[in-house]
């Protein structure tokens, strides 16, 4: 998956961390978030332990992380039901990585990933239905693990951590979080059911968009006696 970062209202073009000099909620609608200290390795300067987060940023990041968690829970269930075939490496517990990086990306930045890509695909602008359909091999697709110890999950879960921080900083209320959680559950459940009902991708797409500038030769399939024809579905990204 390789996708340009779309323009977002709250992205920091210079990648700088905004520090807060006051205490409590600010008049501008921003509040300080205190982070734990870090053990350093070959570094002389540690990341900031206090940053400023606006209300809109807090709601956006929490919503994104919780949506990814719901997507991955749904994906795990689809995998158990054999609606997702092959390997299905989930992004559960790593939501803060994609969401945090996305906040620092500039509009002209690109990202690429080939492993545990569900969360990244979503934060880069792909709708949950397209992600779920891609995982299940349905036509609405994008075309484009080991279980942790319970104590670690409880103390280091990024969604729980973020929720506690933004509520305690008076950026959002617990009631707002409940409404967001309920809406996300509805959205992901709907996308999952629709992906399951969608038509499967046709066999002719086995040989689709293999090369950007196909020269017309047949493509070898599982048998040398049954060659496949190359099919063009969409424009090649590297020829744009």
From TrEMBL:
Residues 1-10 have a biased composition (Basic residues). PANTHER family: PYRUVATE DEHYDROGENASE E1 COMPONENT SUBUNIT ALPHA (PTHR11516:SF60), PYRUVATE DEHYDROGENASE E1 COMPONENT, ALPHA SUBUNIT BACTERIAL AND ORGANELLAR (PTHR11516). Residues 1-33 are annotated as: Disordered. One of its GO terms (biological process) is pyruvate decarboxylation to acetyl-CoA. This is Dehydrogenase E1 component domain-containing protein. GO terms for molecular function: pyruvate dehydrogenase (acetyl-transferring) activity. Residues 64-141, 146-200 form the Dehydrogenase E1 component domain. Its cofactor is thiamine diphosphate. It comes from Ceutorhynchus assimilis. Pfam families: E1_dh. Keywords: Oxidoreductase, Thiamine pyrophosphate, Transit peptide.
